[in-house]
Amino acid sequence: MVTREVSARMQYKADHPNVVVMDHPLIQHKLSILRDVGTGAKEFRELVKELAMLMAYEATRDFQLVETTVTTPVAEANTYVLAGKKVAVIPILRAGLGMVDGILELIPAAKVGHVGLYRDPETLKPVEYYCKLPGDIGERDILIIDPMLATGGSAAAAVQFLRDKGARSINLLVLVAAPEGIEEVVRSCENVRIYTCCVDSHLNDHGYIVPGLGDAGDRLFGTR
User: Fold this and answer.
1) Beta 87-93 vs 111-112: how paired, if at all?
2) Helix segments in the chain, DSSP class H
3) 200 has catalytic annotation
4) Distance CA 102, CA 89 (A)
5) What is the pLDDT of residues 57-88, one digit of tens each?
6) 212 — alpha (psi -120 to 50), left (phi > 0) or beta?
7) Average pLDDT of 128-145?
8) Are 74 and 130 a contacting pair, CB within 8 Å?
9) Which of 123, 164, 205, 224 is labelled catalytic?
10) How many CB atoms lie within 10 A of CB 211?
11) Of these residues, 39, 60, 101, 215, which one is catalytic?
């Protein structure tokens, strides 16, 4: 393996104001290991969890705070706490499940819903087979999570399903994105911010991200 020192900020760029590319060195380091074909299912799952937690820090940056007072062992202190923020984490099945625990470790009070989609191998269009959401979904800030943003069809469909159920505030967290997927979500999903660790080159003829990291679901769960 050839290595060279380089700032992660110089590697990836996004041309849309609603796309945030997370260029922290720890994220880029873990992502490199995640991509490696030699990384086994156990380590792959651990890395996806860790990356999801790191991404959640950035995705919650705009959460509002309120001032409060606490008593330390020494004196009273003026501090800040979250302003009653309600969060829903919505993995797109099945690969999105690998990101849930990392985010819940950071936001343990979040509720979790599920959207089940599969991509038709002929049309590459998403097909819904399951949708279960918190009853107060319209009152929550939503984090849709999925390791890959390829064609963008599944992500756009998930956003529409949630909006049909009353959701308003939606962010999308993905580990790897293709330009085609970003364009589709930006085009069809108004006011959705995309957080990603990187923007890769393109999609191949089978709709896979290049260079990508393979099939995230299969690598998470050890299937083929």
Assistant:
1) parallel
2) 25-35, 41-59, 97-106, 153-164, 179-188, 216-221
3) no
4) 11
5) 988 988 889 999 999 999 999 999 988 779 99
6) left
7) 92
8) no
9) 123
10) 12
11) 215
Instruction: Look up 69 and say whether it is catalytic.
Output: no
For the chain, give percent helix, strand, coil, nearest 5: 35, 30, 40
Preceding omega of 211 cis (within 30 degrees of 0): yes
Distance of CA 158 to the CA centre of its chain: 13
**35, 45, 119, 163: which is the annotated catalytic residue?**
119
- Residue 27 has, within 13 A of its CA and on its CB side, a CA count of 24
Annotation says 205 is catalytic: no
Beta bridge partners of 149: 177
For CA atoms 177, 180, 183, 185, give the dihedral sign. negative
Report the pLDDT value the prediction gives residue 3, as an integer from 0 to 100: 54
Please tell me the predicted confidence (pLDDT) of residue 218.
94
Residue 11 has a pLDDT of 39
User: Are 18 and 62 contacting, i.e. CB atoms less than 8 angstroms apart?
Assistant: no
3-state secondary structure of 130: strand
pTM of structure: 0.88
Is 218 annotated in the active site? yes
Chain centroid to CA 71: 37
Q: How many angstroms separate the CA atoms of 134 and 110, rounded?
A: 10
